[in-house]
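Q: Structure tokens for this one, please.
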Amino acid sequence: MSKYSVMVNGRQALTIEDVCAIAKKKQTVQLSDEPTFVKRIDKGAEFIDKLLQEEGCVYGVTTGYGDSCTVSIPLKHVEELPKHLYTFHGCGLGKHFNEQQTRAILVVRLNSLAQGFSGVRYLLLQHIIQLLQQDILPLIPEEGSVGASGDLTPLSYVAAVLAGEREVYYQGKTLETQEIFSQLKIIPLTLKPKEGLAIMNGTAVMTAVACLAFQRAEYLSQLCTRITSLASIALKGNAYHFDEKLFSVKPHSGQIRVAQRIREDFQLAVEAPRNDSRLQDRYSLRCAPHVIGVLEDALPWFRQFIEQELNSANDNPIIDAEGEHVLHGGHFYGGHIAFAMDSMKTVVANLADLMDRQMAQLMDTKFNHGLPANLSGASKDQAMLNHGFKAVQIAVSAWTAEALKNTMPASVFSRSTECHNQDKVSMGTIAARDCMRVLELTEQVAAALLIVAVQGVELRGKQDLLSPNLQKTMNQVREKISFLETDRAMEKELRLCMQLIQEQSWQLYD
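A: Here is the predicted structure, written as tokens:
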């Protein structure tokens, strides 16, 4: 894939697709060096310097942080404060964010600082872009943020790396930052008074994860639709459940779009039953557009919430260098991302539940209309020895249950912390991490059901009568995963299918 650069200049809004493409190394990123942009950024830092010369009081510059804002910092110690901030926040635990997530975090934080309201130097932005362009990735623990005052603890690892401390991931190895900076002749940045706070006091981590989650949810919606089409063919379902006139009387646009996609999948399916062959299928087929359609209809407002946060200044205080104001507020609060992620994980988990029920129909001879038990492809004389997808269905039930369990909204678990200064917090980063886990579990369910549904269609026969859409998906699956005739361990094939889903290797709908 050819690469082109995404420009960060504080004026041109970045999209979810921009962030994801940079995170996946499908696009490069550049920082504008336009003189007016450079001047606008530096003006904020110069205004902070002016206030210091006038002995002005600025939160986090001449005061302590959070509840310690009443503690005055003598001017002779002001330069030391940023180092103390990122140092005492170096307490993250849990797994580390992966490479894609870390790139996304860097570009999201860069874009926020580039809005020009954070009181940082252009030099700081140059150092962040250098990390991105040379793929030097701070090692950032996932756990430790309550989502207000932003992602303080995880972003402290970005600040520390810019200053030449802690660890990075570079060319497949975890290294001391100081070692790789020395090797590449990178001079560590000495952070100016507002810069540590500007890096850390924002929503970059939760927003970056939300961008990646959005793309995965969008793809899962289409994949679940394609799987529903295959399952419907395998179960001799009633194609008229997706009739255009039927959906015109309940006009949710996403729901209509899902039904239309299924109709297109059935375009040349000669075997689609007549309307009177079985009047009503079970809900997991008949109501599939109504389930998937909720996610489809939610995607536009998920995008709105995420992209507005992505293109915002979200630290504190806000520095208005033009009007010479220091504005103290709470833009670090990640409530919009928290709500989007809590909502997304709910609608995605519903896809897992839908597919789990479709799987149950396919496996059970009481409901699958003549298919072999557990969709075993064994010959008659070997049938008693083979178990088909019996264990895979059990695993799907486990993954679905875990996905549903994780839908508890994180945002309602606000905790008062930091001497009750942070007495209402968003939990946005936890919500985003939960959403990623629900997406992964639902992708596992989708991988299993895709393999099973393809087998069901093949057992039904006459694949040559299928629409081009369905034939294409059948062929793509069979290129990687063979028909299950006799029992075999399916883990490697499930993992391969998962990988292909996460890489979005198959184009599904235009």
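A few notes: The two ends are 19 Å apart (CA to CA). DSSP finds 18 helices and nine strands in the chain.
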